[in-house]
Design a protein that fits this description.
The complex is a heterodimer of chains A (336) and B (325). Chain A is of the alpha/beta class. Helices cover 35% and strands 24% of the residues of chain A. Chain A has a single domain (7-335), classed as 3-Layer(aba) Sandwich (Rossmann fold). Chain A is globular, with a radius of gyration of 21 Å. Chain B is built from twelve helices and twelve strands. Classes of the chains: A alpha/beta (336), B alpha/beta (325).
Amino acid sequence: MPSAEKTILEVQDLSIAYPISIGVVRAVEGVSFTLDDGEALGLVGESGCGKSTLGLSILKLQRPPGRVTEGKIMYRGTDILGMSERALLKMRGQSISMIFQNPLTSLNPLFTIERHFLETIHFHDSSVPREKALAAVEKMLETLGIERKRLKEYPHQLSGGMRQRIMIGLALIMNPDILIADEPTTSLDVIVEAGFTDLLLSLRRIYKLSIILITHNLGLVAEIADRIAVMYAGSIMEIAPTEEIFARPLHPYTQGLINCVPNILVDQKELVTMPGSPPDLVDPPIGCRFAPRCPHVMAVCREGAPALLEHAPGHSAACWLYAKSTREKRVNAVEG
Amino acid sequence: MAILVSAAELVKEFPLRGTLFDAFSPQRKCVHAVDRVTFSIAEGEVLGLAGESGSGKSTTGRLLLRLIEPTSGVVEYRGRNVTSFSPRELETLRAKAQIVFQDPNSSLSPRMSVGQAITHPLQIHGIGTPAERRERVLDLMEKVGLSPAGFIYRKYPHQLSGGQSQRVVLARALVTEPDFLVADEPIAMADVSVRALILQLMRQLKQDMGLTYLFITHDLATAKYLCDRIAVMYLGRIVELASRDALFSRAHHPYTKALLAAVPVPDPKARRDKNLPKGEIPSAINPPSGCHFHPRCPYAIPKCREARPPLREVAPGHFSGCILD
């Protein structure tokens, strides 16, 4: 569980808003979590829940006009949001790296693979001799399972799976501590996806990486993440160790999400569905943002937003269903 | 059960635009998208067509409706050869056999309201008076979960959520009361919670309206939920065809096994088989000789390179195209 020495990244009460013509989109609201050294955290949610905005903001890359209205992002004791542009450029890639859904839009069509790698290395340290840089690149290609001759090729000559492996290679060539992977396998076919998952797991071991995996794919997080944070309409609804969250999901949204995914190993007569759609983030409902769709909604849910409280060791949920019982337990514990 | 739609030895080749020299050579280069595919769908059945991108599953779906012309082969609808239909006959077929595509937003005109979009097929086929059409459309909208129908009727595509758009597309496909629907990855772009709703709706509509589906998907977990039988395609060919239960419990073809093993399972306790086939699906311009899967197959023997393995019946109703069976 998170402890002060092991924590490598801490997001504290982060809120991000996009001012648009009809109001302010509150994309991320009061999000807090920690990432331990060597841990893989899954950030799960549907489109528009703020998971990608959150991922980008960790590198201070949230797209304009988005801006952080509140909160801190502490990386090894420094607030990333207060860093200078110079320090940010150094930090991106050397300390924290990110890969995205579509590798083709992240690679330059006019650059060979070799040039992509050399540019990345020399951007961070222009004094590295070419031979030394190339040796590092070749070693990386070997780890990625890509032939050396591919270095002279252009992105369009590679298959989708190979491009995504090049992307992760570029992200890791400066040996960062943290890798943020935003839907890394969504554009890949299922067999290639499985291969990429295996690669990610082995890279994690080799480079002692901490990972933030942003995805809507519950199968993928089940395989990679140690802990999972479920996001809905800009806030974290539940956060718990992976096995725990699948075995005992507390939040009705987490329960709905897990139940509505077809599982190939189980014979499902019916899928449990979640009617309705996520709220408008310009004018979110007062109280819990999931209340309009929640099967267990109570009067209190429409009055105030529930806090993210720990209900079991390492297992927190933001839901009024449990708030009361936990508070009672605490009171009992104090009295007893 | 009566056969509703069948395909026999269906072939589709897309010629490549080559150099002037290529134009004179006897062997034009082409993409072998669909390579002698044969199957049939019984009335009321859901046949799944599963495979990776580039396996020819979408092309097969379009060929069944004659949205594109086959290079050779026959498609039959209720025993009549669709490939020789006159334009007039084709028009009546269009009312009876419909298709739903992956991206609802690119299937809807931004200038047509929901009501106009769903009414349009009725106008084209001259069904009903304006008042009858309106009533029929509103009824159907309620049935597919677009409620309150009177309110959504006037909305435009940009005002709809992803789930609503896909429901509009479904309603538009079903308004002429077809009996056959090709669903080409209808949930691939939808969010997790929307997927479950659309799948459940498709199952419900099938029962209520007596529909027959060809369900095209790359996701075997969804195919398992919805389909009665499943055909697995690889590089333009069907490599295995079996009932749902047989396919998931007793898969024969090495490609089917690989596909099944690669599906991510939303359960941290489940462990995946780490023996994945090497590489990716090859180009359909120069497909490998013999069995198309042999370069990636862990069980390949020299003979696999020689000839195309026929689809053989390995158990009643279970066909596999592997010479090792």
